[in-house]
Amino acid sequence: MKPIFLTQFLIEEQRKNDQCGADLRLLLEVVARACKRISLAVGKGALGGVLGDAGTGNIQGEAQKKLDVLSNDILLEANAWGGHLAGMASEEMDEPSIIPGEYPKGGYLLLFDPLDGSSNIDVNISVGTIFSVLRAPEGIDPADSKAYLQAGATQVAAGYAVYGPSTMLVLTVGTGVHAFTLDRELGSFVLTQSNLRIPEDTKEFSINASNARHWEAPVQRYVDECLKGKEGPRGKDFNMRWVASMVADVHRIISRGGVFMYPLDAKTQAQGGKLRLLYEANPMGYIVEQAGGAASTGRERILDIQPHKLHQRVPVIMGSKNEVERVVAYHREG
Ligand code: P6P
């Protein structure tokens, strides 16, 4: 069968989807090219001279890996001259980055976590890039973080690249979720799965169990019932997975079902959660919902949250619809 490359897919999407115009298509192609460059750098491992810490920290208070900084720079440079963006915001930058004066500005904002899960890099575990596309609001300077404070439901596109045994690009422009695999010989992303759907039920949950003593009662109850297996109220055995790379964990869930949880707990209560809303929870939540799953904080739909700061953190429970709804029901019951 003739391969469908990302460009052809996006051109065909453009023809049938008013939300996916030429500018958005070109923006997504630029991001995809940047992800190819990141994949190349990540894939070199120790041979690329870019493992280890950069010796700097980000606004999150996290030590930056050399590849965090390199990935961020790759995305900034790739998107500076294209003319599709008014500005960019990143986990690795305190404030938004505006388009250099010598280049035209476009109508979109790009938000990204350039290398999610980077603490896994030095031990050769899958990492990824997460990105979200918003419309640039009229009358707000894209250098002002207020321009990016839009609810996740307003996203026009979202996607991630997962740098694993193969490099995959998974994206949505609002008409389902589609997966592309990087053909390294051609240097092109080839469509390998269309209209991904998350099974509504699962036997697999994903949570960092070392935080168990910090969890709120509803999460404790949900996990305890999973652990009781077929002898317990769920009547079936569960498996657990935790990669500690959101992209890898959520990609598994989009591929075969499951529920990913980084809930509010006593450790993260003060900062509102662990994962970032604008460039982790929102894009992944949009993709999960487009694949028939659900994405909640436990108390509200993630995509409904009105952000109040650029690096805002939120609790995250997303994946198989029936499991997320069960966790939400337990929160309602208290
Ligand atoms: P913990 C990676 O640092 C990340 O932001 C997500 O990708 C991942 O799901 C989570 O943090 C892992 O957190 O507390 O298990 O190390």
From TrEMBL:
Its cofactor is Mg(2+). Its main location: cytoplasm. GO terms for biological process: fructose 1,6-bisphosphate metabolic process; fructose 6-phosphate metabolic process; fructose metabolic process; gluconeogenesis; sucrose biosynthetic process. The gene is fbp. Keywords: Carbohydrate metabolism, Cytoplasm, Hydrolase, Magnesium, Metal-binding. Substrate binds at D116, G117, S118, S119, N208, K274. It catalyses: beta-D-fructose 1,6-bisphosphate + H2O = beta-D-fructose 6-phosphate + phosphate. Residues 6-193 form the Fructose-1-6-bisphosphatase class I N-terminal domain. Residues 198-331 form the Fructose-1-6-bisphosphatase class 1 C-terminal domain. It comes from the Bacteria. Its EC number is 3.1.3.11. The keyword DNA-binding does not apply. Mg(2+) 2 binds at D113, D116, E280. Belongs to the FBPase class 1 family. Gene3D superfamilies: 3.40.190.80, Fructose-1,6-Bisphosphatase, subunit A, domain 1. Binds 2 magnesium ions per subunit. GO terms for molecular function: fructose 1,6-bisphosphate 1-phosphatase activity; magnesium ion binding. Mg(2+) 1 binds at E91, D113, L115. This is Fructose-1,6-bisphosphatase class 1. It is found in: Cytoplasm. It holds the Pfam family FBPase. SUPFAM superfamilies: Carbohydrate phosphatase.
